[in-house]
Amino acid sequence: MICRLCPRNCGAERTETAAGGVCGQPLRPTAAKAMLHQWEEPCLVGAHGAGCVFFSGCSLRCCFCQNRDISQRSVGKPLDAARLREIYQELIAQGAACIDLVTPTHFTPAVLESLDKPLPVPVVWNSSGYEKPETLRLLEGKVQIYLPDLKYALSAPAEKYSGAADYFRWASAAICEMFRQTGPYRMEDGQLKSGVLIRHLLLPGELENTRRVIDWVAETFRPGDVLFSLMAQYTPQPGAEGNLRRHVTRAEYAAAVQYMENCGVTDGYTQERTSAKEEYTPDFDLSGL
Fold first, then answer.
1. Is the pTM of this model over 0.85?
2. Across the chain, where does the E strand assignment appear?
């Protein structure tokens, strides 16, 4: 295919075995781990964990990515749609509360094939938020929960850290499309069954960007429409420069939480700063595949 699945519009030729484009992946899906993951938001974890499938490659390529071994270094095992389906069933048999597809956008055709028949648990589309609405429309009826990042509302940090000055234009449109598909979030016994849960990672020194993200959420959605997760888990990566060499301070995160509450964004989650630890990143050892 000549790939235009994501906003990069790189037009790369990707075949079943030949990689290309910004994501650096072939058309055939590659993944680095499948597991019951305990460190997602509580409404996704249930008694045993979210059934995560961590796909390799990413079109955004953030310089602070904690999963860079798989997002930027192509660690992974080739799969096909049939094997993906088997993996979902194995995770469900282990007690997965949902099937959590992590960074799946560049493998949309194969993922769609793997979801040809409904699953007994919700399917979660866990992405960077840097999505095309037209690609998301292919997923309608197949995905029950959207879990997008909303990393930036300002173009300067989006360009500086992710090489995507147009991030907010695409991510805001994508999240609106996600909400169009799911409608207001629906919970049963503390578990999210359908809806949109927006994640935002506070970056050190970027409190103004976080405020603008919260502004957009507050202005776009009514209480009860979406969930919002304000994350404190930024962890400095090797080679980090400037503010990215440090963790988020207690004062920065407290200010972000206060601003969120003042804006009336109260449906969702905040996070303990102790979550900013490397051990919360899985070991991408190809297990479960």
1. yes
2. 2-3, 12-13, 30-37, 50-55, 77-78, 99-102, 123-127, 145-148, 186-188, 191-201, 227-231, 268-269
